[in-house]
What we know:
This is BrnA antitoxin family protein. By secondary structure, this protein is an all-alpha fold.
Amino acid sequence: MRDEYDFSKARRKPHAAALKKQITIRLDEEAINYFKSVSDEVGIPYQSLINLYLRDCAEQRRKLDLSWK
Length: 69
């Protein structure tokens, strides 16, 4: 192993920025606790589970019924 490495010509992955975008989202405690409990069962981080669930909803074009009675 070398004592020093030259990273002056190194490049970042060009597609890495498009993979995920950091945002701030407000979720109630009940929703967070649910995904944390599922996370403990399946061994996947809860934020990844939330992302998988939301992505599935988007792919399936699921919509909420927001009609007020």
